[in-house]
Design goal:
Elements: E1 3-7, H1 16-29, E2 35-39, H2 45-50, H3 53-62, H4 66-75, H5 82-85, E3 99-102, H6 108-116, H7 130-135, E4 144-148, H8 155-163, E5 166-171, H9 175-178, H10 181-195, E6 200-209, H11 214-229, E7 236-242, H12 245-249, H13 259-263, H14 268-281
Parallel strand pairs: 1-4, 1-5, 2-3, 2-4, 5-6, 6-7
Helix pairs in contact: 1-14, 4-6
The structure holds adenosine-5'-triphosphate and magnesium ion.
């Protein structure tokens, strides 16, 4: 069975997608793990970091995205094909050879409200179980399934949560980015209770850290001390992602031979490697 991990923060722009993609490429390229990335965000950032714009436009036109899965549920059609929709051996980095992607589409924005409140008011499906049903037949083909969630508690996030073994909260160590952490922990507790299974918070990972910033340093220390003093508060990962233009530039889809060429020779590629090791060493 794969380890299934959601990346979630209610705040936008805290590097959820960058962390998901960097970890996925590292688990595959460095540690030869079989990885599936599921892009649950209608912004499609994860998708366009892993496949070319041209390929994505074609997939979207042909309905080979998560939008088809969710619209099938609403309109009782059977157009979604998991085998055709999962894109094999994605990524623009040549040494990454075992990374697949289930792509997203901006059309999810419209469908996600209809899933919860369908026009006929009668639902023949469980809104939060749609992704699980689709993924079940292919799950065993992977060591890791990583879910990039949108910055909200939409039906997409819930679909990700209910199939996850655990989740990771990427955050910039500032006031606004960390504000929603208690709500995420609460939501996870409620979802865990509803599905009768403990969905664990693996930890908080610090992103875009600025050494010169006093507030960053203070909030990082506060998050760490909360873990020691507040029951149920998640631990901090030891790996810290510093703010660097190398990571911002890596969002662009251009062909690279190696992970080091993609993420930089020192800094980001080393951070992703140590983050991947922390994750592989975590207890199940
Ligand atoms: N360590 C970093 N240093 C500098 N820029 C970074 C770093 N990590 C991510 N970025 C940049 O910050 C921006 C936001 O990152 P990203 O899209 O990964 O965040 P997100 O949390 O997924 O956002 P959203 O909530 O919109 O999905 C992007 O432009 C990304 O390239
Ligand atoms: Mg994102």
């Amino acid at each position: 069975m794969p380890r299934i991990i959601s990346f979630i923060n209610l705040k936008g722009g805290v590097a959820k997608t960058t962390t998901t993609v960097g970890l996925a490429t590292t688990l595959s390229g460095v540690f030869q793990k079989r990885v599936l990335v599921v892009d649950l965000d209608p912004q499609t950032n994860c998708t366009t970091m892993l496949i070319s714009e041209q390929d994505w436009v074609k997939l979207n036109r042909e309905g080979l995205t998560l939008h088809t899965l969710f619209s099938d549920a609403v309109y009782n059609t059977h157009r979604f094909d998991i085998g055709l929709s999962i894109q094999k051996n994605v990524s623009n980095i040549r040494e990454v050879k075992s990374l697949d992607l289930l792509p997203s589409s901006p059309d999810l924005i419209n469908i996600q409200d209809i899933i919860v409140h369908p026009p006929k008011k009668k639902r023949s499906y469980q809104p939060a179980a749609i992704l699980r049903q689709a993924l079940e037949p292919v799950m065993d083909a992977y060591d890791y399934i990583l879910l990039d969630c949108p910055p909200n508690f939409s039906c997409m996030t819930e679909n990700g949560f209910v199939i996850s073994d655990g989740y990771i909260i990427p955050t910039i160590p500032d006031v606004l980015s960390t504000y929603g952490i208690p709500q995420i922990l609460n939501k996870a507790r409620n979802v865990s209770r509803d599905c009768g299974r403990w969905i664990r918070c693996y930890g908080i990972v610090i992103t875009k850290y600025r050494e010169q910033s006093r507030i960053h340093k203070r909030i990082m220390e506060e998050l760490d001390s909360k873990h020691r003093t507040l029951p149920g508060w998640p631990p901090l990962f030891e790996t810290v992602f510093y703010e660097t233009s190398q990571l911002a530039e890596a969002a662009e889809y251009t062909e690279k031979n190696t992970l080091k060429q993609k993420w930089g020779y020192n800094g980001p590629s080393t951070w992703f490697e140590s983050f991947a090791k922390e994750i592989m060493e975590m207890e199940v």
